[in-house]
Amino acid sequence: MTISREVYSTLASIVGRDYISNDPVIMETYMRGGYLIDTPMEQIIERPGCVILPANTDEVQEIVRLCNRYSLPFVPASSFWSLECAAKGKNFVLLDLKRMNSLEIDEKNMYATVGPGVIYSQLQEEIMKLGLYTLCPGGGAQASVLANHLMYSFSPLCYRVGIPARRVLGVEWVLGNGEITRLGSLATQEDAFWGEGPGPDLRGLLRGIPGWCGRVGVVTRIAIKLFPFISPERLEPEGITPHTTLKMPLNRMKWFNITMPSEEALYKAMVKIGNSEIAASIMKVPILWRYRARAKTKEDFWKSWIKDAEEIKKGDFHILRVLLIGYTSEEQLKYEEKVLQDIADELGGKFRRTRPTDESWFKTADAVSMWWTTGAYMSVDFIWDSLKHSLARGETLYRLKEKEFMPPMMDEYGEKGWVQAVEFGHSAYIEFLVQWDSADTEAGARYIDLWVGAQRAAMDNGEYSAMIGTSSVSKLTGNHYGPNFFPLQVKIHKLLDPNNCSNPPMDLFDRLVEDKAPYLKEKYGF
Question: What are the distances in angstroms from CA 41 to CA 38, 74, 96, 447?
């Protein structure tokens, strides 16, 4: 079914003719997000039937109701960081939400209410003036605050400020059927300070770790918890994009890089630091990062990496990276530094020189530039579990890659991923990084498809993988978390989006395997 002139005119009457288009050139620009989660998805992306830019919740509701009336699929997008925001079939109505950029800050109660058009760099700049802060995701501060809280929102700063689901307060949500629901105290008043009530608390239904990717409607407002920061000291910017940093006030903030004698000593240090309840973030730094940070070009990276291969293979690079912040005073920073020194001395750690700057976690919007030094950076596996299980997943994936996928995938000489402690070490997050340098050929894409399939099939240790979210083969991976996982997901979706209009299809990866990548089914039985 095409988008008829009648429907197009009705949509235009909702937002005004200046805020809707079906121009093929403009539609082409809405076919690629900033980050590709699943390589096979590229094979089904289509131009949307039209792009529409609503200004508020009422306009979103009218658009969603119209799509339901005419059985038109729609998909919401804000900063378009993920290809999940693209149209996955013909005649999609793509809701570009950038005009919905409201930003309200409650300094006293330490929360901000934002629309989907507000990005992290905007929010962080304003709240730091008030002595407050939030985290910025590793993908860069150009991400939508609202969308990122519904989809991932990971950062080393989760060690101190907690996982994203705990930071979500009030929510305004247009369901897939066009009804509006509000969560928490926002349901009864224009004050979103309390996520648990007195209105309904459906935050756990709205998102898990990866979220629904717009498959249960459109969230038009969200309130998030903010946290006290140092004041009046400021993080001063320096450099020219894309090589920008923030200079830290050393009387209140310090980075420490510590070389530990072994992998075991490194993880013991992470546990001890968490038990001591010091620091703002702690993580294991992959050796690859050091080479990437020093490289000025892709060629420069490969030259250094190959030259130092034998030294890297010795496996003596167990680097613990710790950020200390004196939130309350300079004395707090001095105290935490002494505790850190004691832990390092006990376990044989040696302090290294460390630049007193930040490039990713507080304000920068160009962190994505770090991804391309090696040629390509993709097919990352995300694990959020206990430290033990996160490490086990890293071991599993490295052995899998070593056995079946090197080359063309880059040999990282035993590196098992980037690990960060979460919530004072009560849980942990790991990204298993995959770099490769290959032409963008059909054969190369197929090889990456196989790696994605292999990750999802390798569930030997039972750890949760964020890559098994709504874009995975849920019928396969769901069995690891209970036999009712996928049927329950289907029931919830039917309840919230009965006409299956909100970013269909739900079982996306299943259909991709069946229709576009049968070799995955042959190899892994999907």
Answer: 6, 17, 20, 14
CA quadruple 27, 32, 33, 38: dihedral positive or negative?
Answer: positive
Total-model pTM: 0.88
Euclidean distance between CA atoms 231 and 7, whole angstroms:
53
Confidence of residue 31 (pLDDT cuts 50, 70, 90): confident
Is residue 431 within 8 A of residue 412, CB to CB? The reply is no
The mean pLDDT value of the chain amounts to: 83
Q: pLDDT tens across 188-228, in order? A: 888 888 888 788 888 888 876 677 888 899 999 999 999 99
Domain with CATH 3.30.465.10 in the chain: 103-228
Buried b (16+ CB within 10 A) or exposed e, 326-358: bbeeeebbeebbebbeebbeebebeeeeeeebb
- Where in the chain do CATH 3.30.70.3450 domains reside? 249-355
Fold of 249-355: Alpha-Beta Plaits (3.30.70)
Taking the C-alpha atoms of residue 272 and residue 402, their distance in angstroms, rounded to an integer, is 32
Please tell me the class of the 5-96 domain.
Answer: alpha beta
Class of domain 103-228: alpha beta
The answer to whether residues 135 and 170 touch, using CB atoms and an 8 Å cutoff, is: no
Residues of the chain with CATH 3.30.43.10: 5-96
Residue 307: HSE in the Cβ half-sphere, 13 Å Cα cutoff: 7
